## 1
Amino acid sequence: MANYLHGFIPEEQQRLIDQAGFLAPKIFKKIDFSGCEHLLEIGSGVGAQTQALLSLFPQLKITCVDYSDSQIEKAKENLKGFEDRVTFSVQDAMELNLDQTFDSAYICWVLEHIAEPRIVLEKVHRHLKPGAKVFLTEVFNSTHYTFPALPFAQKYYRAYNDFQTQIGGHPEIGASLGNLLQQSGFTQISHWLGGFHLDQTHPEELKAMISFWVKLMKSGAEHLIQAGLVTEEEVRKMEEEYHMLPENENAVFFIQFVQAFASV
């Protein structure tokens, strides 16, 4: 896995939990694991997505895989009460090695951080039963747009995506999910766009999105400053510009992500 852009501090772990709740109505709109019994979740992190899956699909048992001990320990705390339905494995997904097979798999906001995402998908494929369902959700960061343009926010966002690329990540990987799934041996592949198109017709949703988005952007600030790509003052101005956006009567915030379904 590439050097994780967001880090593993407690504040970031809480942000992941908050993010899962905020994005759940968008992410799970088309995801359907009905009929599945044992799901493999790659990059389960602090268990935020796991908890949503357990609640939506009460028949599921889930094996959570993450390469970070601290994330798994936090996940165990967050998933207390689900011990009979969740097991954990600390390992690098690029070297995935489990002693069982699964009838479903789920990967969300993970492949963007992995140096060789195709290898991960190939490993997952080998651990799935014939007919297994797979759902992926990933970023397509170049789709982000605001009106009016925000100069400091744009500069920061370029640095954010450039840094992720430099450390081996893939900020546009959503656009390639279909190809990656096909190249990894999956069939029945389909994909669709999700995301946000917000303006003053829904001002409260716009403000909520800005609040969420600024926290996401700032989660990478420390690494960007250390890399010399932005200054603390530029981070402050980025945050200020975004927070001012909802005050503009013509404000627009737009971002898309990509989801994909496949089977074995």
## 2
Amino acid sequence: MTRALVLDCDGVLADTELDGHLVAFNRTFEELDLPFRWTPEEYGELLRVGGGKERMKAYLAQHPEIDLGSPEQLDERIAAAHKRKSALYVELVEAGALPPRPGIARVVGEALDAGWLVACASTSALASVEAVLASVVGPEQRARMAGVFAGDVVPAKKPAPDIYLLAAAELGVGIDDVVVIEDSQSGAAAAAAAGMAHVVTVSHFTHDDAFPAATTIVSALGDPGAPATLVEGLDARGPEGFVDLAGLERVLEAHRAAAAS
């Protein structure tokens, strides 16, 4: 039976939001002379909205005093800003500003070596996701991955389940054979709505959030010498204190049992 590991990007591969996306957004706003900047607190709230363009629209809807023109002009300015922001973000990633989260490269390698299909599913732009993958897992492991599903590949973004359902369909696996790794409420809700087992590795903006459908919540996947902390749920850690492939198998089994009960 073929298993699949599907990873979110931001907050899962690297803690990208605070030192990556937020920085790139604010640099873009400054470059384009837009009359606002986002604080970390504001951005933390906006992360509940899936997609960068959608976050800008949500922010502007909350601030009607900011006039960026007609609806058509607004869409054009948002699209241009998001394109520039994505380019600035890739520059940050390529400069090594965003170190990988513990355990990601290890678990991806273990899964690939065991014959699992490995993919990434993110609301971020494809170029941004590919840059992070190249930095975190390296080109050789990226070449072995089964797919990357990113950006506007589906019209309804997280917390809608569409991107995870698309990933399962494209990978040719059933939803009961997929383990998702997420870090955010919207991402975890998307995995839950898709009926998929999911592990949450909390990140800077999400450590106080609730994840009621997650099988396992941990501080990170962990690595030898850098053990993970179990926050809640099934303990998917091995004897050395980090989440391994055997732990992900236990997550799948527990999710199936819960679904059948």
## 3
Amino acid sequence: MRKFRIGFIVLLALLLVFTMGQTGAEAKEHKEKELHDVEKLLKGKDGTIILRNLKGKTFVYNQERSKERFTPESTFKVPNALIGLQTSTIRDEYEVKRWDGTIREFENWNRDHTLASGMKHSVIWYYQDMARDIGKKQMQHYMNLLDYGNQDISGGIDTFWLDSSLKITAREQIDFIEKLVKEQLPFAEKYQKTVKRMMIKDEQDEYTLHGKTGTRLSDLGLGWYIGFIKTTKEKWVFATNIDGTGSEAKNVILAVLKQKDIIRE
């Protein structure tokens, strides 16, 4: 009889845990809401927006596109920097790479850069050089470890993220960013802190904005903005891609943050 009671109690405990897990999952799913009044922000262009706070509340615009994979373009600088630091390919955010003298399309690319300034000015040649130093074996290892998009680097070690083989959804991007915010990625915490610091775009008394743009330079027909914002009350992560430029994607996110009263003018 005593054994029966113990077994019954254990069974009840397991059922309770299972039910609570289901309830938590359902509650999180229930909190996903549609974003409204954003069509005018996109100015007639197709796109998707995901905005999520770390308490589980999520706003989404264009559910279907949020699950569609696109090339990450320069948003890949975020995982690329983490991999470079973790593998000791780059010592720190201040390590300089010398400009090779080749005149490129943006004036501020035509000089020496550090890991941090390369992130700030989205200097492709710096991160391409670092990717070559990381090498295919280590790069593929971390793509698999991160479960980053389709993990396909077959497009070339220094080009696979640029209108090439690697593709990722907005949902996968925001999950990656959330793990970075929580410092739960498979990298040393100090490197995750470094990269988050490198992503700072705006510091105010009420908030700090961290982000990274990405633009398909071949036709300016794909733009990303990913990142997070820390306010005095909470943290929000975001990811958007549109049929436009990264700057346009950034402007859309900033407008949505203001619309949601996360940023106050």
